[in-house]
Protein backbone atom coordinates (compact mmCIF):
# COMPACT_ATOMS: atom_id res chain seq x y z
CA UNK A 1 0.00 0.00 0.00
CA UNK A 2 1.52 3.28 -1.16
CA UNK A 3 1.51 6.08 1.40
CA UNK A 4 2.05 9.72 0.50
CA UNK A 5 2.83 12.60 2.85
CA UNK A 6 2.74 16.23 1.69
CA UNK A 7 4.55 19.12 3.32
CA UNK A 8 5.54 22.69 2.55
CA UNK A 9 2.24 24.51 2.52
CA UNK A 10 1.67 27.81 4.27
CA UNK A 11 0.70 31.44 3.97
CA UNK A 12 2.47 33.57 1.38
CA UNK A 13 1.94 37.02 -0.11
CA UNK A 14 0.92 37.44 -3.75
CA UNK A 15 3.96 37.14 -5.98
CA UNK A 16 5.72 34.89 -3.50
CA UNK A 17 6.93 31.31 -3.80
CA UNK A 18 6.45 27.99 -2.04
CA UNK A 19 7.77 24.51 -2.63
CA UNK A 20 5.56 21.55 -1.82
CA UNK A 21 7.00 18.10 -1.19
CA UNK A 22 5.36 14.68 -1.44
CA UNK A 23 7.24 11.83 0.20
CA UNK A 24 6.32 8.33 -0.97
CA UNK A 25 6.61 5.24 1.20
CA UNK A 26 8.80 3.40 -1.28
CA UNK A 27 10.49 3.45 -4.66
CA UNK A 28 7.37 3.85 -6.75
CA UNK A 29 8.27 6.50 -9.30
CA UNK A 30 9.30 4.00 -11.98
CA UNK A 31 5.80 2.49 -11.97
CA UNK A 32 3.54 5.42 -11.10
CA UNK A 33 2.46 8.69 -12.65
CA UNK A 34 2.56 11.32 -9.93
CA UNK A 35 0.19 14.27 -9.80
CA UNK A 36 -0.59 17.39 -7.81
CA UNK A 37 -4.25 18.29 -7.44
CA UNK A 38 -5.81 21.19 -5.59
CA UNK A 39 -9.23 21.98 -4.19
CA UNK A 40 -10.38 25.45 -3.30
CA UNK A 41 -13.38 26.05 -1.01
CA UNK A 42 -16.62 25.40 -2.86
CA UNK A 43 -14.84 24.13 -5.97
CA UNK A 44 -14.08 20.74 -7.46
CA UNK A 45 -10.68 19.16 -7.12
CA UNK A 46 -8.58 19.99 -10.17
CA UNK A 47 -5.41 18.60 -11.66
CA UNK A 48 -2.53 21.06 -11.39
CA UNK A 49 0.49 19.17 -12.71
CA UNK A 50 1.62 15.65 -13.52
CA UNK A 51 4.88 13.82 -14.07
CA UNK A 52 4.95 10.39 -15.66
CA UNK A 53 7.15 7.46 -14.70
CA UNK A 54 9.28 8.41 -17.69
CA UNK A 55 9.62 12.01 -16.53
CA UNK A 56 7.27 13.79 -18.95
CA UNK A 57 5.44 16.72 -17.38
CA UNK A 58 2.16 18.51 -17.99
CA UNK A 59 0.43 21.48 -16.40
CA UNK A 60 -2.95 23.10 -16.11
CA UNK A 61 -3.14 26.27 -18.20
CA UNK A 62 -3.71 28.32 -15.05
CA UNK A 63 -0.27 27.43 -13.63
CA UNK A 64 1.81 26.98 -16.78
CA UNK A 65 4.97 29.04 -16.61
CA UNK A 66 4.66 29.57 -12.85
CA UNK A 67 4.71 26.05 -11.36
CA UNK A 68 7.27 23.28 -11.90
CA UNK A 69 6.76 19.63 -11.02
CA UNK A 70 9.77 17.40 -10.42
CA UNK A 71 10.79 14.24 -8.63
CA UNK A 72 13.88 12.86 -6.94
CA UNK A 73 13.96 9.09 -7.39
CA UNK A 74 16.72 8.63 -4.82
CA UNK A 75 14.67 10.40 -2.14
CA UNK A 76 11.28 8.99 -3.24
CA UNK A 77 10.03 12.56 -3.16
CA UNK A 78 8.07 14.66 -5.63
CA UNK A 79 8.03 18.45 -5.60
CA UNK A 80 5.89 21.32 -6.81
CA UNK A 81 7.77 24.60 -7.06
CA UNK A 82 5.21 27.40 -7.11
CA UNK A 83 6.33 30.89 -8.14
CA UNK A 84 4.44 34.13 -8.77
CA UNK A 85 1.63 32.91 -6.56
CA UNK A 86 -1.79 34.50 -6.89
CA UNK A 87 -4.73 34.62 -4.48
CA UNK A 88 -6.59 32.23 -6.79
CA UNK A 89 -3.92 29.61 -6.10
CA UNK A 90 -5.28 29.35 -2.55
CA UNK A 91 -6.39 25.75 -2.00
CA UNK A 92 -5.61 22.47 -0.33
CA UNK A 93 -2.98 20.75 -2.46
CA UNK A 94 -3.00 16.96 -2.71
CA UNK A 95 -0.37 14.55 -3.92
CA UNK A 96 -1.63 11.58 -5.96
CA UNK A 97 -0.01 8.44 -7.34
CA UNK A 98 -1.54 6.41 -10.19
CA UNK A 99 -0.07 3.03 -11.13
CA UNK A 100 0.80 2.96 -14.83
CA UNK A 101 -0.89 -0.36 -15.64
CA UNK A 102 -3.47 -0.99 -12.94
CA UNK A 103 -6.16 0.93 -11.05
CA UNK A 104 -4.02 1.15 -7.92
CA UNK A 105 -3.71 4.70 -6.70
CA UNK A 106 -3.10 6.67 -3.52
CA UNK A 107 -3.74 10.14 -2.13
CA UNK A 108 -1.90 12.22 0.41
CA UNK A 109 -3.68 14.01 3.25
CA UNK A 110 -3.32 17.46 1.68
CA UNK A 111 -1.47 20.63 2.59
CA UNK A 112 -3.01 24.10 2.76
CA UNK A 113 -1.64 26.88 0.56
CA UNK A 114 -2.97 30.37 1.24
CA UNK A 115 -2.00 33.38 -0.88
CA UNK A 116 -3.01 36.66 0.70
CA UNK A 117 -1.66 40.06 1.56
Q: What is the element string, with H for helices and E for strands?
A: EEEEEEEEEEE
Q: Rg to the nearest angstrom?
A: 13 Å
Tell me the total number of β-strands.
11
Strand content: over 45%
Number of separate helices:
0
Shape: globular
* Measured distance between first and last alpha carbons: 40 Å
Low-confidence segments, given as residue ranges, are: none
> Helical proportion?
under 10%
Please summarize the sheet with the most strands. Answer: 7 strands, mixed
What structural category do the secondary elements indicate?
mainly beta
Mean pLDDT: 96
Descriptive key words:
single chain; 117 residues; mainly beta; seven-stranded mixed beta sheet; four-stranded antiparallel beta sheet; globular
Structure, described:
- The chain has 117 residues and is an all-beta fold.
- It has strands at 4-7, 10-12, 18-24, 32-39, 46-51, 57-59, 67-72, 77-82, 91-99, 105-107, 111-115.
- The strands form two sheets. Strands 2, 4, 5, 6, 9, 10 and 11 form a seven-stranded mixed beta sheet that branches. A four-stranded antiparallel beta sheet has the order 1-3-8-7, with no helix packed on it.
- A hairpin with a 5-residue loop joins strand 9 and strand 10.
- The chain is globular.
- The mean pLDDT is 96.
Summed up:
The protein is 0% helix and 51% strand.
SSE layout and pairing:
Layout: E1 4-7, E2 10-12, E3 18-24, E4 32-39, E5 46-51, E6 57-59, E7 67-72, E8 77-82, E9 91-99, E10 105-107, E11 111-115
Parallel strand pairs: 2-11
Antiparallel strand pairs: 1-3, 3-8, 4-5, 4-9, 5-6, 7-8, 9-10, 9-11
Amino acid sequence: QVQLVESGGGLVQPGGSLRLSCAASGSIFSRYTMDWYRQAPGKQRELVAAITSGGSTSYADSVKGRFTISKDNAKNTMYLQMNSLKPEDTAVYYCHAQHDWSTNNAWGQGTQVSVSS
